[in-house]
Amino acid sequence: MGILDNKVAVITGSTRGIGKAIAHEFVRQGARVVITSSSAVNVHEAVEEFPPDTAYGCVCDVVSTADIEKLIAEAVIRFGRIDCFINNAGISDPFKNITDSDPEVWGRVIDTNLKGTYNGCRSAIGYFLRENIPGKIINMAGSGTDPGSNTPWTSAYGSTKAAIARFTFAVAQEYKHTGISVMLLHPGLVRTGMVSADNPTPELSRQLATFNTILDIFAQPPTVAAKLAVRLASCWSDSKTGIYLSALHGRRKKWLLFTYSFRKILNRIDRRTY
Fold first, then answer.
1. pLDDT tens track for 190-205
2. Which residue of the set 56, 118, 127, 157 is catalytic?
3. Contact in structure between 168 and 139 (CB atoms under 8 Å)
4. I want to staple 30 with a disulfide (CB 3.0 to 4.6 A). Which of 2, 40, 147, 180 is the partner?
5. What is the pLDDT of residue 202?
6. 175 is annotated as an active-site residue
7. Which value, to the nearest 10 degrees, does the dihedral of the CA atoms of residues 54, 59, 62, 63 take?
8. First-to-last CA distance in the chain?
9. Which CATH number does the domain 8-196+220-249 belong to among 3.40.1710.10, 2.40.40.20, 3.40.50.720, 2.30.30.240?
């Protein structure tokens, strides 16, 4: 028996990295999941990793309102209902200062991360209201979310994460009397393709030593965030909204920093890319 038995979750951008880890943890806890990506090949390969009848794949570009509506419709046809919608799909801009950045790339990050989250929330809330389901929405925070944090050289990514936080809490207030929970999850620093140092830009090359040290200290496997996502999707958050959980909260940061030297000496730093 799992704490998400009979629940159905839609997770955007879930064919790899944090999204896929969340999907696997949800299935382990008894849920069925809808896996999405803009790539049909990635969707097919990811679904093959799950036990039969626990995962369904759907190609979806989160920037498209029509794609999101189709995603919800297909999820309902396949599993009968939706209980949780996770706006995980996201991309980052290359490590560059603003004058070297490509306006089209910068705008694509804004569209995917911020508009994608808006589209997911709008459609999921509409579905929950129509079906009178006290559904749960989990949006993804990141660097740039917490007060005092900043994201030089990835200004588009950081801007979207700050905006998603404000957006999440605003929507939580708008629907606080409906039974719908709108929540924010900070997955912490995870070694995914988004933070890979492969083919670094000139700016990243100049700061590669610092960049790698930060990863060694603070990077965690995506299972840490996945377990927090399960908590948010469970009965723990019933009748609650506007909740914020972080896999890299203050005490956790201090612990990772304190244990860094020991992990380095004992060769226990996980440098896998998820």
1. 999 877 666 778 888 8
2. 157
3. yes
4. 2
5. 83
6. no
7. -170
8. 28
9. 3.40.50.720
